[in-house]
Amino acid sequence: MTIPEIQTVCYVGAGTMGCYNALVAALAGYHATIFDVHASALDEVQATQAQFGAFLTNAGFCDEEGLARARDRIRVETDLSVATANADLVSESIFERLDVKRTLHKQLDELCPPHTIITTNTSALRVSDIEDVVDRGERFAALHSHLGSPLVDIVGGPRTSAETIDILRRYTESLGGVPLLLKKEHPGYVLNAMLGPLLSTALLIESRGSAPVEDVDRAWMYFRRAPMGPFGMIDLFGIELIHDSWQFRSVDPEMKDSQRRILGVLTPYLDRKELGIKSGKGFYSYPDPAYQADTFLEAAPSLQALHATLASVVVANALHLANLGVADPQQIDMAWKVGTHLDAGPFEILDNMGADLFKDNLSKASAAGFIDTDRHRSAAQYLASNQKHERS
Fold it and tell me: What is the CB neighbour count within 10 angstroms for residue 303?
């Protein structure tokens, strides 16, 4: 059921997230317009949404009849003024370039009707880095979705009104989503602020030749009972998305070597146009990746140390988020479990691991360059002052 404040949504960017989010909105009864400056991108919308539709029907989210009705509510447009003319909500999902996003949001602010709520689906940038270019700061926020997950991050900027946050919360719930209202903004929100370091650690391990791609994924899948490992997830999200998030990121001097190593792993895949699932090949070949084979996990029980490194990176970043006051442990565990479909959040992993073993793993991961000094210190601070983790 739709909410009264929103009937028409404009999705700016016909990439993966724009197509997926438009389809989910249309399934909920909203009218959706997808805008892109490239007509060729709009030509691919139907095919892309057909793939998502198959995924959603197989998952029981909708049936074929509902999917057909949803397609009738979606249109595409190459003229931004036409696309936004009747929009109650705009969701921007273009690539992660701050200068480009700022230019676009200034234009959206000028074009959209006065009542329109404008949102960014940025994965890593902060609302406050963008919002000063719009006059309607009270109706500007981040509304960040996760592909294949009902989790939706909602975070306001310095001027965002409580009414806007409430509308976005109810809109998210109308989609069947699970809203996570952050207490304060943070790059990567909550889930990505833990998931990103996990993927980065996997890429750094590969860059050093410490373990093959398959073993990294085996370790994570076996001990976390996960359907795929870090490299499978990179293929799912898109290798170019992970590459661009590092290519255009300003990093501290301490992280320069990590940035160089990670780009060194990913760039050859881009050069070969091996982008992951969408291109049929990435770290694995699709539609039948090796990690889905019955025998894939046979050697996994011996990879406990590799899993300990990966898990400790996730836990350390969770502690860092709690220490900063971005979200509390209960919210962080919820975000992780809803976002990854796994059965244990990072604070639950910590409780099972034990503080002493975690401290040892934290020191090893930090020494190996998988965790920077600030996060190591922040995690240790939180652990020292919160020996017992209350999630209720």
Answer: 21
* Residue pair 254/373 in contact by the 8 Å Cβ criterion: yes
How far apart, in whole angstroms, are the C-alpha atoms of residue 281 and residue 276? 5
The closest of 189, 163, 145 to 25, measured between CA atoms, is 145
The CATH architecture one would assign to domain 190-392 is Orthogonal Bundle (1.10)
Q: DSSP labels for 203-252? A: HHHHHHTSS-HHHHHHHHHHHHT-SS-HHHHHHHH-HHHHHHHHHT----
CATH superfamily of 8-181: NAD(P)-binding Rossmann-like Domain (3.40.50.720)
> What was the pLDDT predicted at 228?
96
Q: Looking at this protein, which amino acid is placed at residue 362?
A: L
The domain segmentation of the chain, as residue ranges, is 8-181, 190-392
Which pLDDT value is given to residue 391? 40
The token pair at 168 is 């976005």
The pLDDT value given to residue 272? 97
Quote the pLDDT of residue 246: 87
Instruction: Say if 8-181 and 190-392 have the same CATH topology.
Output: no
Q: Taking the model in full, what pTM does it have? A: 0.87
Beta strands in the chain, from DSSP E residues, in sequence order: 8-12, 31-35, 74-77, 89-92, 117-120, 140-146, 149-156, 178-181
Ranges of the chain whose pLDDT falls below 70: 387-392
